[in-house]
């Protein structure tokens, strides 16, 4: 059955129904926008949708699923945000593997959009259509988004899938040319089922991580992995308000030295949840929110944390 193609996707009945009916009725749109918080199944659903599109008319011939997962199907172009490093583009996973220090998040670049245009200039080789998937479409700068707009206006024999956290995070001109497919946070039973099936049942014992995830199993897993990557002693120290100026300054120094910017931003989120559960004090949450904004503005991390912890110490 067509819906069986989406069996790995849990807790998203509306999205599955919209996509399966489009294929069943042969009314597949030229472009889709999958929207919802990170980690609720958008990327997995995109993979299932591509497999369904490719197998609906040609048959699910042996090896199709593996070829799609490996990214070597000639009619699929999968785009991820990248970093620029020594003249090469690296995805977030590739940058992490090389242990590169990252001061800014990856983006979808204009040259990547140009590659999409070149890919779509030829007809599909095996499947009934070409398919392009853009993860984190909200990371496109305006030149890249404008270049993609031209492709969306005349996609040819193709379907494009943009994945983003919300419609507001993408240029309105792009949103208007896509059929919106909403993805929602999972309820507790679905979240528990996903974490159990994926071997992360221990996360269910970490209430702060679950609160931080807000119904996102992918978010829960990412937060748990980040939590385990923080040195135990450092984690113990940051979950207590410093008792002296020297302790506040030393703690700020450790954070700046031991954690990259991405880990520091995660730590801000974690501490907001942790401190709120402990003390329910809005001032603490506000100070941490200021720290986040400063880190995103590329302020000197050590100085940001010094000001934050001294502010907590003095309760200013």
Topology:
Elements (H helix, E strand, L loop, with lengths): L12 H12 L6 E5 L6 H17 L5 H7 L5 E4 L2 E4 L2 E4 H6 L12 H11 L9 E5 L7 H12 L4 E7 L7 H4 L3 E4 L5 H10 L9 H7 L3 H13 L2 H7 L6 H14 L2 H19 L2 H15 L4 H14 L2
Parallel strand pairs: 1-6, 1-7, 2-5, 5-6
Antiparallel strand pairs: 3-4
Write a concise synopsis of the structure shown:
The chain has helices at 13-24, 42-58, 64-70, 92-97, 110-120, 142-153, 172-175, 188-197, 207-213, 217-229, 232-238, 245-258, 261-279, 282-296, 301-314; strands at residues 31-35, 76-79, 82-85, 88-91, 130-134, 158-164, 179-182. The protein has 316 residues and is an alpha/beta fold. The model has no long low-confidence stretch (mean pLDDT 90).
Describe this structure in words.
- With 316 residues, this protein is an alpha/beta fold.
- Helix content is 53%, strand content 10%.
- The protein contains 15 helices and seven strands.
- The protein has a five-stranded parallel sheet with strand order 2-5-6-1-7, sandwiched between helices. The protein has a two-stranded antiparallel sheet with strand order 3-4.
- The mean pLDDT is 90.
Which characteristics define this entry?
globular; 316 residues
């Amino acid at each position: 059955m067509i819906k069986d193609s989406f069996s790995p996707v849990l807790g998203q009945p509306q999205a599955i129904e919209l996509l399966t009916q489009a294929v069943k009725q042969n009314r597949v749109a030229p472009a889709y926008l999958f929207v919802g918080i990170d980690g609720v199944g958008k990327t997995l659903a995109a993979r299932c949708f591509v497999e369904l599109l490719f197998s609906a008319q040609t048959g699910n011939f042996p090896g199709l699923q593996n070829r799609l997962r490996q990214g070597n199907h000639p009619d699929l172009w999968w785009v991820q945000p990248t970093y620029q490093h020594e003249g090469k583009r690296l995805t977030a996973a590739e940058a992490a593997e090389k242990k590169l220090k990252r001061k800014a998040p990856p983006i979808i670049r204009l040259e990547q959009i140009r590659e999409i245009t070149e890919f779509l200039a030829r007809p599909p080789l095996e499947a009934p259509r070409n398919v392009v998937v853009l993860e984190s479409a909200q990371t496109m700068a305006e030149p890249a988004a404008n270049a993609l707009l031209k492709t969306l206006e005349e996609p040819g024999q193709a379907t494009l899938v943009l994945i983003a956290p919300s419609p507001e995070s993408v240029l309105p001109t792009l949103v208007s040319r896509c059929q919106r497919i909403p993805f929602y946070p999972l309820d507790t039973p679905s979240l528990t089922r996903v974490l159990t099936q994926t071997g992360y049942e221990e996360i269910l014992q970490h209430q702060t991580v679950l609160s931080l995830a807000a119904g996102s199993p992918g978010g829960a897993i990412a937060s748990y992995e980040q939590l385990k990557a923080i040195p135990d002693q450092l984690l113990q120290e940051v979950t207590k308000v410093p008792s002296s100026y020297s302790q506040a300054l030393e703690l700020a120094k450790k954070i700046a030295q031991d954690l990259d910017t991405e880990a520091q931003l995660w730590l801000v989120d974690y501490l907001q949840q942790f401190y709120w559960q402990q003390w329910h004090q809005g001032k603490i949450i506000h100070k941490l929110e200021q720290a986040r904004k400063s880190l995103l503005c590329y302020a000197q991390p050590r100085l940001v944390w010094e000001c934050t912890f001294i502010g907590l110490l003095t309760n200013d």
